[in-house]
User: Which sequence fits this backbone?
């Protein structure tokens, strides 16, 4: 891979990673804005429903006060006007409810139940006297607690309410009382409340009409859509409707003069599904789960792509580090490959210069060694220069039509002169006039590299076979060695720059690791193919294939 290509790939990876990061940030901003928009609208609508719930809660409390106002206040008014010393009405109240008009029509269904509102009546002429009762008498411990409440603080005309209530629990039973000061101001009269009857009256007043006015809700909100829970302490005393945990609700605590049942607390909410009846456009559906789901999918996809890019970046970094290591190894190997022929040339040149040869035969042999090593050195330098041009993308070829057999024969003869051991055996079934399209210099370098590779990986003294054969429309040139062969898993990688198999024998063989890279690149530029296969009987077989020139035309 050339430096320009590597830089281009690294730049592309950085740009893509940057774009992915920007996309993730934009999606985060959009998701946040969507969340704000949806939650703001939802909060607005829920706030409106909560306001409606507050109105309904206030109306509920007002109606619960009607139990005191219409049920108990008239009785307290009658009792407070009794003359000092006059007896309290007996257990059936002597027709008390017929003595004054409560303002109710019998059709309401409550007139016949008035006398059931009270379990009994009581009066205290002054704080130092015992309590006078009529009807049922509360337990003594309850009376003691009531007397404590009556003494502190005293009811006066300057207080907000002239009617007060008292609640206590004894032996698991709720006791509720309402009381007021007599007209003389000296005593207190009160009623022991019948809890069941009081709650019946409360239910009647609450359910007799919608808690919200029809003009406000367009008569589309009924009480069954309103959830009401009434507690006394932690005990449930009244409930209507269905609780909706996802809907807005409000809570209220009854005042001292507003309750018929001690320590009353109210929770009220409106069902969310009636939102369209109360709000223009209705209550928006909860889209956040879908939005979050979409964002999760998008973010998941983006993070997945980002993870892939990070893996790619790590792979590229690892490859760059590997290439850096292989380049360092390449420099070391090139230095060794250059030093070997130079040492041979210097040694035999000095031998000749010092006149240490003893015969003409030794003189001629020294010159032959110098020539061979010089050719080896020239071939090595040519390889390095060619690889540099390939790495920069500056390799150029000039393709011409040329007879293949004479060229192959010439290169074989040239290579035999620089072989240290072994021999080349060439066979051909191709006519000397058959021409193929190639660049002569580029092919020469390819062929020499394959021959040199075959010699390096063959056992010492073994024969190298060069075969030239012709088919219907192509010519194949094969170079066969008798070495250990190339594993199938490494046959694609041997063309990579600096790659060397990790087999012990191959690691011990000299070389720069760029020869086959040059072969593959020069073959690509000449539009010819080169492959490696296993040789029958062991070893490797490299095949260069040409199309015959007249077939190409």
Assistant:
């Amino acid at each position: 891979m050339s430096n320009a290509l590597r830089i281009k790939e690294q730049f592309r990876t950085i740009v893509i990673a940057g774009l992915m990061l920007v996309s993730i940030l934009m999606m985060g901003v959009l998701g946040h804005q969507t969340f704000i928009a949806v939650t703001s609208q939802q909060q607005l609508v829920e706030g409106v429903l909560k306001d409606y719930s507050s109105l309904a809660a206030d109306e509920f409390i007002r109606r619960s006060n009607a139990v005191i106002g219409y049920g108990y206040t008239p009785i307290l008014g009658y009792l407070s006007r009794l003359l000092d010393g006059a007896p309290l009405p007996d257990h059936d109240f002597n027709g008390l409810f017929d003595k004054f008009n409560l303002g109710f029509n019998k059709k309401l269904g409550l007139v016949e139940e008035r006398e059931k509102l009270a379990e009994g009546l009581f009066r205290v002429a002054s704080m130092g006297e015992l309590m006078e009762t009529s009807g049922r008498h509360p337990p003594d411990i309850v009376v003691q607690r009531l007397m404590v409440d009556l003494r502190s603080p005293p009811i006066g005309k300057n207080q907000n309410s002239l009617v007060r209530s008292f609640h206590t629990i004894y032996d698991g039973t709720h006791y509720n009382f309402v009381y007021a000061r007599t007209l003389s101001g000296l005593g207190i009269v009160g009623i022991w409340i019948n809890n069941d009857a009081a709650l019946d009256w409360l239910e009647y007043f609450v359910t007799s009409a919608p808690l919200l006015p029809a003009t406000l809700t367009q008569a589309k909100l009924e009480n069954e859509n309103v959830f009401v829970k009434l507690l006394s302490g932690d005990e449930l005393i009244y409930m209507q409707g269905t609780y909706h945990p996802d809907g807005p609700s409000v809570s209220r605590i009854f005042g001292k003069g507003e309750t018929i049942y001690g320590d009353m607390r109210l929770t009220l909410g409106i069902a969310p599904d009636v939102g369209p009846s109360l709000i223009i456009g209705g209550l928006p559906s909860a889209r956040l789960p879908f939005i979050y789901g979409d964002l999760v999918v998008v973010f998941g996809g983006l993070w997945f792509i980002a993870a892939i890019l990070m893996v790619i970046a790590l792979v590229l970094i690892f490859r760059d580090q590997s290439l850096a290591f292989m380049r360092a190894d390449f420099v070391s190997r090139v230095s060794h490959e250059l030093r070997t022929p130079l040492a041979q040339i210097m040694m035999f040149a000095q031998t000749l210069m010092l006149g240490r040869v003893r015969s003409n035969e030794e003189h001629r042999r020294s010159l032959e060694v110098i020539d061979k090593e010089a050719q080896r050195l020239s071939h090595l330098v040519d390889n390095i220069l060619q690889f540099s041009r390939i790495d920069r993308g500056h390799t150029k070829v000039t393709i011409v039509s040329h007879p293949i057999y004479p060229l192959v024969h010439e290169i074989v003869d040239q290579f035999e002169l620089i072989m240290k051991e072994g021999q080349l055996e060439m066979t051909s079934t191709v006519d000397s006039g058959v021409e193929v399209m190639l660049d002569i210099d580029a092919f020469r370098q390819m062929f020499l590299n394959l021959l040199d590779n075959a010699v390096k990986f063959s056992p010492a003294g073994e024969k190298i076979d060069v075969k030239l054969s012709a088919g219907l429309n192509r010519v194949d040139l094969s170079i066969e060695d008798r070495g250990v062969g190339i594993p199938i898993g490494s046959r694609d990688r041997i063309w990579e720059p600096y790659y060397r198999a990790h087999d012990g024998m191959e690691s011990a063989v000299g070389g720069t690791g760029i020869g086959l890279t040059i072969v593959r690149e020069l073959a690509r530029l000449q539009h010819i193919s080169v492959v490696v296969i296993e040789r029958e009987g062991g070893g490797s077989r490299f095949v260069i294939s040409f199309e015959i020139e007249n077939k190409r035309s």
Q: What stands out?
A: Confidence is low (pLDDT under 50) at residues 100-107, 502-508. The radius of gyration is 55 Å. The first strand starts at residue 118 and ends at 124.
